[in-house]
Design goal:
Helix content is 47%, strand content 15%. By secondary structure, the chain is α+β, with helices and mostly antiparallel strands. The chain has a six-stranded antiparallel sheet with strand order 2-3-4-1-5-6.
């Protein structure tokens, strides 16, 4: 009997993700069905750890080489194999790199979010494709792929730095001018800006309950923080009751898939998009004011 061939996406990240090296099964949300096996391997240990473990003080020369950076290799292996190697080759030939990357990072970030709660470590956080040193996809035999090897693979080259599907928001809120303004301002960023970013992360991950609560708080704060933009505030005030109604329900933390409410997701997505537009306008006014 021929050995089974599995598709995979492999990511190299220039940091330690917090999850211990090993093999982790990520199941489909709301199901016991395994979605992917995620294999983590740290390929280079940071020298800084050894220095920090030493007791006492040690002299430091005036010129120090940059500390070696750990690289975490993440191999995300689909649970379902191809029917045969010909099907695997056909999949690789017509590979949609953007789509496969999105699916892989969704699974990886679910693992990181679960570890954050399990370890009670608030500093474990989700990651994005834009942080990756390398992205590749391919197929191989089960144990072969788990060990970081393959039969065939190719590099994934994204069209541009990961777009997050909201290029205009990133262009303004992450601009050099905006960063300089925040660092030099006595007021700093708005509270609603930070909460809106957290809501975006949770809603994109399908965590409707968390996203709804964060969005409700962000909208409430924005009504005060954006008081200088009456038309924007009026629109946000109209959206707040619908978001509050969803936030007040007993929703599971993860509610994506057949059991999730598509209408709730659309309501929250629309409200967050309008809040983000209001925050963009605020940021733009500050930059050009």
């Amino acid at each position: 009997m021929a050995e089974r061939v599995f598709p995979f996406v492999q990511v190299e990240m220039p940091l330690q993700l917090g999850v211990p090296d090993g093999r982790w099964m990520v199941r489909e949300q709301g199901s016991k069905q395994v979605e992917r096996v995620v294999v983590l391997t740290t390929t280079q240990a940071p020298r800084a750890d050894r220095r920090l473990r030493r007791r006492g003080r040690a002299p430091v020369p005036p010129e120090v080489e940059p500390t070696a950076v750990p690289v975490t290799r993440v191999t995300l292996i689909a649970a379902q194999p191809f029917p045969d190697q010909e099907a695997a080759q056909s999949w690789l030939a017509r590979l949609d790199g953007e789509h496969e990357t999105d699916l892989a990072f969704a699974s990886l970030n679910r693992l990181l979010a679960a570890h954050r709660v399990a370890a009670a470590d608030p500093y474990v956080h989700e990651v994005g494709p834009g942080q990756a040193l390398a992205l590749r996809a391919g197929f191989g035999l089960g144990e072969q792929v788990a060990e970081g090897r393959w039969l065939q693979a190719q590099e994934i080259r994204l069209a541009k730095p990961h777009r997050w599907r909201r290029g205009r928001r990133a262009a303004i809120l992450h601009s050099h001018e905006r960063l300089s303004s925040l660092l030099s301002s006595e007021r700093g960023p708005l509270l609603s800006e930070e909460l809106a970013l957290r809501a975006r992360l949770d809603l994109d991950a399908g965590r409707l309950a968390l996203g709804a609560g964060e969005l409700e708080r962000a909208l409430s704060l924005a009504l005060t923080e954006l008081a200088g933009h009456p038309p924007r505030v009026a629109e946000l005030r109209e959206l707040l009751p619908g978001v509050s109604e969803i936030a007040g329900r007993e929703l599971p933390i993860s509610s994506r898939g057949a059991d999730s409410s598509q209408q709730d997701a659309e309501t929250l997505s629309h409200a967050l998009a309008r809040l983000e537009a209001a925050l963009r306008a605020h940021a733009s006014a500050l930059a050009w004011g």
